[in-house]
Amino acid sequence: MIPLLDLKLQYRKLQREIDTAVAEVLADTRFIQGPNVGQFESEVAGYLGVKHAISCNSGSDALHMALLACGIGGNDEVITTPFSFAATAEAIGHTGATAVFVDIDPVTFNITAESIEAAITPKTRAILPVHIFGQAADMLAICRLARQHDLFVIEDCAQSFGARIAHKHTGSFGHAACFSFFPSKNLGGYGDGGLFTTDSDDLAEQFSLFKNHGSKIRNQHQVVGWNSRLDELQAAILRVKLRHVDKFNQQRISAAKHYTRMLDPLPAQTPQQADDLSHVFHQYTILTRSRTRMIDELKKKHIGHAVYYPMPLPDQKAFSCMSRSSDLRNTNAVCRQCLSLPIFPEISKTQIETVANTIRQVYAD
Ligand SMILES: *Cc1c(COP(=O)(O)O)cnc(C)c1O
Predict the structure, then answer these.
(1) Cα distances (Å, whole numbers) of residue 258 to 128, 343, 351, 362
(2) Atom 6 of ligand 1 has which residue's CA nearest to it?
């Protein structure tokens, strides 16, 4: 049996460090707004190379409050990808803005400056690219386009912690960026958690107000806010994991390389190879016209797998009414053919070979 994701191996490896950190929090009892939260925020800001890193309750909250901090609301349009987790579209929906879905590149699965540019209208206020599966979107071209049209860029980095373009981390290109620390993410906590990053003092101030009941000074509430905090236990655990995250991402890249080597040459499209951290392989996702047969075979061998994502977001009932779409031919094709295989830092070569051989067998039959 090979799971899609195995979190137990990593806990065993880090157990001493994590147990110590957790025990300190339990003894200290400052469970909310304790010292680890501020320390984690400044460590992660340093790691990412941003002026402000503000933690919150989840990646979903970070996206919602980031859009609000940019002043996005009722009459606005936000250009984004139809190939993502629902939270990306939900955040736009909660502001009352219209989500404008544009087509993805069939190799990187990310939206491109060309597809975005064709969808810009006088109502467009922001671009929300997602670094899907851990692969950085073309931020240089997207940010250039945004400057020309005076648009906000908010990066969804939920799957791309640690990914870089040249030496700059995803999450440091746009006006703002949002991260998730959901346990399965490349930097995952042991519960929910999220992060907002920006170089703008104004956006940081707005976001801080929203996440803390609209209040900066006790008993003074300036805006209608939320309770959206990262708790002290998660912050303590994330501080431990942050110290190891580059090594974990390198291990994901090595695993992906081995998959690609093992699967070549096959009529399945494997991901672009990364040696440079531009793809940190949150998922290893292939395209295949034989997906149903492949899934049957993987099930027989008890090998974990997932279809991320089977349906373009505008086809979901929840988002059909709050969105507009361009021609999504690449997205539709990718949704029909995508298949994600087991990947995590500790996956062994033997496990990868077992998965790859199972897939090869489908083509041999
Ligand atoms: C996980 C994820 C989110 C949401 O993060 P949560 O912390 O689970 O709320 C948003 N966008 C993408 C692309 C994600 O993968």
Answers:
(1) 32, 11, 11, 19
(2) 59
